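Regression test case RT-17, inverse folding.

Input:
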């Protein structure tokens, strides 16, 4: 397969021309890297970090599933699950910050992205529900 065909396929698959998809994908990658960083700091808290990893990556996975929804109702349902996962991620980030496992700068940086995803999801869900 030549390089131009490979790039073309990868571009459309990664972006979908969809801001929510792009941001949730990038956030998932960031969460994976953050998880690896946290494990290097303190392996004893692995179970806690895994909660953050599961919730943070699940946001994008459900947004991706929504792209192939069988109906508008199914689409809304997948986005609702993403919203729940983003709120769980929000919770774990606050716990890590309050317990002084992550510092203020680490918290603010990643929390800002999580909050933006939550807002995008709420907006997308409202729009999709109004079109049911």
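Golden output:
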């Amino acid at each position: 397969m030549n390089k131009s065909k490979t790039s073309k396929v990868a571009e459309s698959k990664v972006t979908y021309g969809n801001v929510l998809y792009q941001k949730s994908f990038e956030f998932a990658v960031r969460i994976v890297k953050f998880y690896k960083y946290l494990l290097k700091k303190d392996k004893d808290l692995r179970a806690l970090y895994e909660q953050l990893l599961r919730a943070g990556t699940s946001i994008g996975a459900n947004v991706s599933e929504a792209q192939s929804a069988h109906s508008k109702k199914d689409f809304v349902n997948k986005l609702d699950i993403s919203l729940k996962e983003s709120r769980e991620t929000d919770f774990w980030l606050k716990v890590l910050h309050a317990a002084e496992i992550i510092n203020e700068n680490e918290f603010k940086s990643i929390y800002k992205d999580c909050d933006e995803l939550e807002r995008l999801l709420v907006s997308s869900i409202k729009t999709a529900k109004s079109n049911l």
